[in-house]
Specification:
Order of helices and strands: EHHHEEEHEHHEEHHEHEH
Low-confidence stretches: 2-34
Shape: globular
Strand content: 15-25%
Number of helices: 10
Distance between the termini: 30 Å
Largest sheet: 6 strands, mixed
Number of strands: 9
Oligomer: single chain
Structural class: alpha/beta
Helix content: 25-40%
Radius of gyration: 18 Å
Strand order of the largest sheet: 2-3-5-4-6-9
């Protein structure tokens, strides 16, 4: 995720109700409930360990040993946790330099016969450049990506671990996207950026998606940068426009669990992230839970060498994990 992909939507100044009522695919926003939630416990320590393990491999950049090792790790963990189907979707993607690169999306299905389904997404690659780092000498070196990439994967792997230990009726699909953070670096563009050079793995997956024998998910949730101690999760334009029902489920659940100060029902603007591809090409209404606000942008560690495991908050992981699992339990 990169600031070059952000267009602050000043047209959203009329409020979230406006972004929930635009476009042909817009869903009507239901009444917000304030009932007490039955909390589904989430193990933040375990999620943290999944993040740490990814970082131990080193930067997960395309065609590297760390990349290969992480693919093997994620697929083995999904199988160990009882996924009925695990596959690696190999795809050729074209980067900002017009070079063809080898990317790999990781796909898993739990309870594939269930007709009612939810799909969880995160990108798992890490940024090849620290182009927002204050130290110009290290800006061209890859980052650990503990928050930007690994945190979403860690939360989802923990949900996968707990899935068959919990009485979920809803089927679960998981996709870990590759090549999200391969976008054109700011030291090339001077801050302008090439929007099409981002989210290459999700572009490929969404354009090739078809439900086949496994039912189409009712909605999706994308996790991106969900581990910062001071995280704020607001509602971006695409989430509000294409997935308003899911937005209300998630933010209302978070508020009822006591996490309303982190999950604030406020507009953040328009951005390009993996959920845009999913909404537009796979036609699955998908919400982006991402640490970004209109007034301060991304967290300070974003695309710098400070995006390390030591800056990951178990408290934030717990809030995100419990919210998602509680939403799933009610489906």
């Amino acid at each position: 995720m990169n600031i070059n992909k952000i267009i602050i939507a000043t047209a959203l100044a009329t409020g979230l109700s406006a972004c929930f009522s635009q476009g042909e695919k817009t869903q009507e926003s239901p009444k917000v409930s304030t009932k007490k939630e039955i909390k589904v416990k989430f193990n933040a320590d375990s999620a943290y360990s999944y993040i740490a393990k990814q970082c131990e491999f080193g930067p997960r950049i395309l065609e590297s040993k760390a990349h290969d090792n992480c693919v093997e790790y994620m697929t083995s963990e999904l199988r160990r946790h009882g996924a009925d189907i695990v596959e690696v979707q190999k795809c050729d993607v074209v980067d900002w330099e017009k070079k063809t690169r080898k990317a790999e999306n990781i796909i898993a299905h739990f309870n594939p016969s269930a007709k009612k389904r939810v799909i969880l997404f995160s990108h798992w690659d890490s940024r090849p450049w620290a182009d927002q780092d204050g130290n110009e000498a290290t800006r061209r070196k890859p980052i650990d990506g503990a928050n930007d990439g690994a945190s979403g994967v860690g939360v989802i792997l923990e949900i996968a671990r707990q899935y068959k230990q919990t009485d979920f009726k809803v089927g679960l699909d998981i996709v870990f996207f590759d090549a999200e953070d391969l976008g054109e670096p700011t030291f090339i563009t001077g801050g302008r950026g090439n929007n099409d050079s981002w989210c290459l793995g999700s572009q490929y997956w969404a354009r090739h998606y078809k439900a086949d024998s496994i039912a189409k998910p009712r909605f999706g949730i994308l996790l991106d940068m969900v581990g910062d101690a001071d995280a704020k999760f607001h509602v971006d334009f695409t989430s509000g426009r294409f997935a308003s029902i899911a937005v209300n489920k998630i933010w209302t659940t978070a508020k009822n669990l006591g996490y309303g100060e982190t999950f604030e029902m406020r507009e953040s603007g328009q951005l390009i992230d993996d959920h845009v591809q999913v909404c537009q090409y796979a036609d699955i209404p998908t919400v982006d839970i991402i640490d970004f606000t209109a007034y301060r942008g991304f967290p300070e560690t974003w695309h710098t060498h400070q995006d390390v495991i030591g800056n990951i908050s178990k408290s934030t992981l717990k809030m995100v994990g419990e919210t998602i699992m509680t939403v799933m339990a009610k489906e």
